[in-house]
Amino acid sequence: MASLPDDVLVDILRRLPVRCVGCCRAVCRDWNAATSRPSFDRVLARRPAAVAEVTPSHRCSPLVQAVAFDLFRRRWHPDSVHHKVVVASPRRLSLDCGATRLILSPQTLRSWDGVLCIQASTPGAQDEPRVSSRQAPPDGGDCVLLNPLTGAYAVVSAPAGHGRIIGGYSHPVTGRFHLVHCSHEAADSGGGDLAVATMIRILAVGDTGWRQVPLLPWQGGGSKILVKSQGDRSVNLHGNLHWLVQPSGSARAALLVLDAAREEFLYMAAPESRALDVATARLRLLSGDKLCILALARRPAPALEMWVLDDYSNPRSWRLRDKIRMVLMDGTDLSPTFAAAAAAVEVVEGVEEGEEILLRLGGWAYAYSFRHKWWGKASVAQTETLLAHRESVMPREISFGVSAYLAHAAEKSPWRMTQMYHEI
Known about the structure:
It is a single chain. By secondary structure, the protein is mostly beta strands. The protein contains six helices and 29 strands. The chain has helices at about 5-15, 20-25, 30-35, 40-45, 335-340, 395-400, and strands at about 50-60, 65-70, 90-95, 105, 110, 115-120, 140-145, 150-155, 165-170, 175-185, 195-205, 210, 225-230, 235, 240-245, 255-260, 265-270, 280-285, 290-295, 305-310, 320-325, 345-350, 355-360, 365-370, 375-380, 385-390, 405, 410, 420-424. Strands 9, 10, 11, 12, 13, 14, 15, 16 and 17 form a nine-stranded antiparallel beta sheet that branches. Strand 16 and strand 17 (about 265-270) form a beta hairpin. Mean pLDDT is about 80; it is low at about 80-90, about 125-140 and about 410-424.
């Protein structure tokens, strides 16, 4: 193996289950160097995302937060190619925040480039640290970043004022993890969950301050855009971050795109559909590295339009791939669930199940199978969060710099995850 060219070695190692790569790093310096480059992590990111179940907890001690993390076994797990593959049991990691007492909010949990991002706030003097399962933390506050595979984590402070963390990414050249923060103010009219973006800033984790990135004007007009004030997140593809937005003064939606390497914004066209409402539509990523938009059409009957961008180099190549019935056989209408700002919506692909849409709100999760054309249903705990997650093997010192800490394993989690859905 020592005589193999670097490209052949990388091609062999990238075929291994992600959780085996860490063991390969201990073989020799060459293997460690080959698997620690950002380019190797990008190759692994091309695998289909798995569905992760994350449960923040404060049971370890008053100042230690625990995060239970698990990938669905067999169902949606990219490493479960054969039935005999044994997938690791749930990981329960303890985060020692020192003298900082934090309230973790599962509703704000996001996954970008293998890193979980959980917004948190500091309780008052008389409050005990706890997990907030009903509401999001106030604007500003702290943000806990965690790589469940390597155990690396960091705590960073968000800018003060009204705003949210709306994106995160591993820099395509350096591998350093970056956060994107959007300051906003209330929209003048319409839009429920919409707000006017006033400033967008970027932070390289480990650096001392946030940097402002100017927005470009929309087709010669103003630079103001309407964004989701809650529940929004970036979709990362080809070294760019994407958001579904509505430029001020325009009746049409558009895609706001951030070039991660150059830290510059540009716009892309969105599908021309009457059902495309920025307040309720979701921008997601298919396993074949294609952007898709899920838009809720309410007439003549509730249905979910799935638009797919066939050619990334041609922003006009949007195609209506499917129109999904949102009223189940028992009369349940899923459109209010989809439209809720707190609803989790993911597009995932299972080894056996094929491509599915995962919809979760409260104690129920629904999965629509494109192969079988039906919705399945399962009950889930209120404190658990389901999301699509792609694992990252990036070393902690590269991802988080001097801000990196190492989480330690806690006692086994008592909960057990639901693996199958029943047809409805």
